[in-house]
Amino acid sequence: MGLTLAVRPTLADSFPEAEISNGQLRVKLYLPDAKSGYYRATRFDWSGVIASLEYKGHSYFGQWFQKYDPTIHDSITGPVEEFLTGNVALGYDEAKPGGTFVRIGVGALRKPDQPQFRRFFTYDIADPGKRTVRRTSDSVEFAHTVADASSGYGYQYLKTVRLARDKPEMTLEHTLKNTGSKTIRTDVYNHNFFVIDGQSTGPDFSVQFPFALKATRDLRGLAEIKGSTLGYLKEFGPTDRVQTELTGFTASDKDHDIRVENRKSRAGVRLRGDRPLSKVIFWSAEKVLSPENYVTMEIEPGREFQWKIVYEFYTF
């Protein structure tokens, strides 16, 4: 029997990073870098990767996976976002082998001789685009510009991680402008990856929504739904997983409101979006809970789309 060891970044590892604070929240972010960045895979947006967030002695994000490799699709932490058109990247189906397609937040990628797009595969980056980062004491602004003439897709993407001045809130502000010749039709969701105080997923956790929930998949005796709350029936081990789509929300942005709480550590987080939900997927493993909140956008050439997510951290 082989032995698999967890590979984790150590103090000797050096990644470009920034730290911001508002006196209540202390946040460390990994900065995008094609050569030495913490995350260099092609699934998630490279902007705004949060290594850690601390509030009143509690931690809310951190490494939840066993094996770390910067080119593995889910070697990433914090509230991170993926853009998908259906289950495909922009321009993939139209591109010929050797041609290019676009993953927003990553760049223009090279299509291999594979007819079917693979979300979790790390593709070669043909053009990483242009990135700039601007920092203040309580915010980090990430700008990413891509112009892929081959696929016809181009964009200017601005994402700002901003801390409120007088309360324990963090806001992700986004603007996506279409600078290409084709309409951008895409969903974006935030995977969130909540890791609260290192607690194992189990009965001490609850996930609350403002609407009555219905799971589309069997929760396999690991979790249960009671009204508008998802709870757990056992403490998870290394191989336990729950994944399901959750339905019941309306077209109102007031339903874009999710709370995750741990009654043992008495720490919680509430996230609210300013756009209506288009889908909710819930996924959790041994050390991580991920309510995935989807928003849909359609942006004509020359137009832009804005959205934001507010995270409120609290104790109880």
Provide an overview of this structure.
The structure is a single chain. With 316 residues, the chain is mainly β. The chain has a domain at 205-315. Helix content is 0%, strand content 45%. The strands form four sheets. The chain has a ten-stranded antiparallel β-sheet with strand order 9-10-11-12-23-20-19-14-17-16, with no helix packed on it. Strand 16 and strand 17 form a beta hairpin. It is globular and about 55 Å long. It starts with 16 loop residues before the first strand and ends with a strand. The model is unreliable at 1-7 (pLDDT under 50).
Low-confidence stretches: 1-7
Order of helices and strands: EEEEEEEEEEEEEEEEEEEEEEE
Kindly report how far apart the N and C termini lie: 45 Å
Shape: globular
What gyration radius follows from the Cα positions, in whole Å?
19 Å
**Physical arrangement of strands within the biggest beta sheet:** 9-10-11-12-23-20-19-14-17-16
Oligomer: single chain
| Structure classification | mainly beta
Tell me the total number of β-strands: 23
Helical coverage, percent range: under 10%
Query: How can the largest sheet be summarized?
Result: 10 strands, antiparallel
Q: Report the β-strand fraction as a percent range.
A: over 45%
